[in-house]
Design a protein that fits this description.
The protein folds into 2 domains: 52 residues, no CATH class; 56 residues, no CATH class. It is built from 2 helices and 7 strands, in the order E-E-H-E-E-E-H-E-E. The chain has a 3-stranded antiparallel beta sheet, with no helix packed on it. Strands 1-2 form a two-stranded antiparallel sheet. A two-stranded antiparallel ribbon has the order 6-7. It has 114 residues and is of the alpha+beta class.
Length: 114
């Protein structure tokens, strides 16, 4: 199977790397990124913020949102009768953000109150 990698940059100092492959390879990629940042840019990765999360069983927190894999056995395509969201990447507003009463919607210029 070919390795698949996705990079999502939110701000200059924050990025999310999506990767489909074995955990060992994920750790190797993390180490290579850490080495590159240290030698070429004189930057270090924060150990507490640099996490490896399995998207099927957990969610990654990125710029205030949770990112994970969606699962819903009842959401079906009306014409084909197949499940439409299973295995797709989902963007979630975390419960703690909802409880505070405001969240930032990308592309908007104000807060949305929930």
């Amino acid at each position: 199977m070919e390795t698949q990698v996705m990079l999502c940059a939110g701000r200059p100092s924050y990025f999310l790397l999506g990767f489909a492959g074995p955990l060992v390879e994920a750790h190797q990629i993390k180490e290579r990124i850490s080495t590159f940042l240290a030698t070429e840019l004189k930057l270090t990765l924060s150990a507490e913020k640099t996490l490896i999360t399995h998207a099927q069983t957990g969610r990654a927190r990125f710029l205030g949102y949770d990112i994970g894999i969606m699962e819903c056995p009842t959401k079906l395509d009306r014409t084909r009768g197949t499940r439409t969201v299973n295995g797709k990447v989902g963007l979630y507003i975390p419960k703690d953000v909802i409880q505070t009463g405001s969240c930032w919607i990308p592309g908007s210029y104000s807060h949305v109150w929930v």
